[in-house]
Amino acid sequence: MVQQLTDKFGRTIEYLRLSVTDRCDLRCNYCMPEGFKDFEVPEDWLSFAEIERVIRVFGELGTRRIRITGGEPLVRKNLAELATRLAALPGIEDLSLSSNATRLQKQAVPLKQAGISRINVSLDTLRADRFKEITGGKIDKVLKGLMAAKEAGFQPVKINMVVMRGVNDDEVEEMVQFCIEHDFTLRFIETMPMGDTGRNASLQYIPLSEIHDRLAKKYTLIQAKMNGGGPARYVRVEGTELRIGFITPMSQHFCDTCNRVRLSVDGTLYLCLGQEASYPLRELLRAGITDEELKQHIQKAIDLKPEKHEFNNKPEKLVRFMSMTGG
Ligand code: SAM
Ligand code: SF4
User: Fold this and answer.
1) Which partner from 98, 287, 296, 319 sits 20 to 30 angstroms from 161, CA to CA?
2) Per mean pLDDT, which range of 152-166, 176-190, 196-210, 256-270 is the poorest?
3) Residue 61 lies in a domain
């Protein structure tokens, strides 16, 4: 019989976000500090075999969905090989990827063949100069990567746009048109005060209700559903196939339906994006614990899952920035 992971607040945990690296080839200014170099060393990265084992055991504990993330996951060598191994695990029904798409042009087809079905790409602007300002990188590689993902048959391809006042909020309508034209799904995200970078970006925070109301003046927005098990609330733009998701961790948190945990590249389980609660698995794995013992440790970790984040009342609390946890 398949077991289920349930936390102290009665939430079933069936979704794991797997960070395969804390490194990245971009430096989004709300995420990773410029010049940051204090990365995990390779000896401390979980190997593919260790990752596969942890995910297999999570699968036996009822986890159905895995999202590969980072840092930038495509920076980790041989990612398609890992994806093939994870996709083959019993119980894992949905394997997806979050990427900045800089390296997707070459890797889209192998990753699709490996069994990744859905992909989310971060893209906050369509303008090359702004892209450079926000991320330090070049937008053409990202646009080529996005188109390669579409060509390779990922369905859906979702664009994640962190909306920041005075930075890119004037581009919301352009992004809507871009996504209609290319058949992408669009998701807006509120900035979160994760680490100093996130806290700085929070100065440009916009509640997404503002963006929703602005779009509602221009388009007819109809409530919609979208598969994926995430916290976004969706609308469809009438007369088009475009779905727009609003992810509002700040203005309307969704902690009571949280179904996920995060495994970082060094084998630490993080129980909440906005809290320090964590449980280290790497040393236990390397000390030779059995699968049964691993299951007990995972349940102990789940027991530490906090009821909710404290971004609003204790924004100074979290030192970790997003790419360290696995966003
Ligand atoms: N590198 C990949 C990417 O950018 O999609 C995957 C990892 S990234 C950490 C995952 C997501 O976290 C991205 O959509 C990014 O925009 C988001 N993110 C990072 N820092 C954030 C912050 N302070 N507030 C809101 N979203 C943030
Ligand atoms: Fe890299 Fe993604 Fe963080 Fe940007 S949001 S710095 S692409 S990990």
Assistant:
1) 319
2) 196-210
3) yes
**What is d(CA 327, CA 18) in angstroms, rounded to the nearest whole number?**
9
Between CA 230 and CA 9 the distance in angstroms is 19
The pLDDT score that the predictor gives to residue 1 is 53
Task: Yes or no: say if 52 and 16 are a contact pair by the CB < 8 Å rule.
Answer: no
- The CATH code of the domain that includes 209 is 3.20.20.70
Residue 8 maps to a domain: no
279: domain range? 15-325
The reply to whether 190 falls in a domain is: yes
In a domain, 6, yes or no: no
Instruction: For ligand 2, say whether the CB of 124 is within 6 Å of any of its atoms.
Output: no
* Residue 142 in contact with ligand 1 by CB distance below 6 A: no
